[in-house]
Every structure is written in C-alpha cells, then in structure tokens.
Amino acid sequence: MIGFVGALYAISTQRAINRRRATVDMLTSKMWDQDYIKSSRIFYQMLKDQKTLMQQYDLFVDGRNKKHTGEWSKLREDDKKAYDDAYETISHVRFILNDRELVAIGIREGTYDEPIFRRWWYTTYIQEWRESSAIVARIRSDAQVSAAANAYAEFDALAKRWQAEGPWSKSDRHFRLPGGRFVTISRSR
User: pTM here?
Assistant: First the structure.
C-alpha cells in the first residue's frame, strides 16, 4: 500500500513539473516568435484605437461578403487593397484572441500551470480582455462565424475569474489539486 501511495505521489509530482515546464516553454517561445510579435503589435495598436478596429472589422465583413457573392471581381484594385488590409489586420487580432482562448483552455484543463501564468500575465490578461471585449462582442454577433456566440468564452471566463479573485500575494505558493482546486500556502519573507 505504501508503494502504491508513493507511486501516485511520484506521478502527481511529475505531472506538476511537466505542467510548469510547458507553461514556461509556452511563455518563452512567444517572446521570440516573430509572427506572434507582429500580431501582438497590431493587436495592441488596434486596442488603443477602438474606432479604427471596428471600422477594420466592418471592412473585413464587407470584403468577405463581396467574395462570397461574386462582387469581388467588379471592385477597383484600391478597394480590394483596403479589404485585404482589413482582412490582414483582423487576422492578427484574431490570432492573439485565439492565443488567449487557448491559454485559458490550457489552464482550465490543467495543461498549463495557472500560478506561473497568473504571476507572469495577471494584469495584462485582464486588461486585454477589457479592451478586446467590444471586438469580441462584434465577432459573437457575426452570423457567418461558426460558434460565434461562444467565441472567446474561456478567455472571458478566466479574465473575469482572475479579476474577481484579485491578485495573488507574491509570497504565497499555489498548488493545484486533482479536480482543479488550488491550495495556497502563505510564506513569510
């Protein structure tokens, strides 16, 4: 029986180590990925100018509709360029939103270590949700996007949960238990 308990403890410990390693690897890889860096730059520029972001989304939708109805071929080249530019901008914005959604899913499923991610990105993650909620609402209302009503629901839920819970103390240690609950151990400095 002691051997069985020891084996379960070893497996649990190894899973926690692997989860932390996956989280650090994911965060580190983003720092050097040029596509991610470019998309992030465009994402943040668009979040600063919500009016332009919404105009770009409207152009993106209009261009997508013109392609589907066959009107695309009748457009002037400069109009096509405006639509293509809007498509590229919205693609970068959605790339980052998809990344945030994937992170939230990874945290919920236990693939990523929430304490590490939360310490690294707590304020930014919540701020990104607040600033991107308007574009997410537009995406959710887009009838031509599959599963639009649920778009970025995990990003939404995680950001709201973190905001409700507030920041964790830097002196505390947090451990995930089986089932997803966290245990906090306070350390004095």
Answer: 0.80
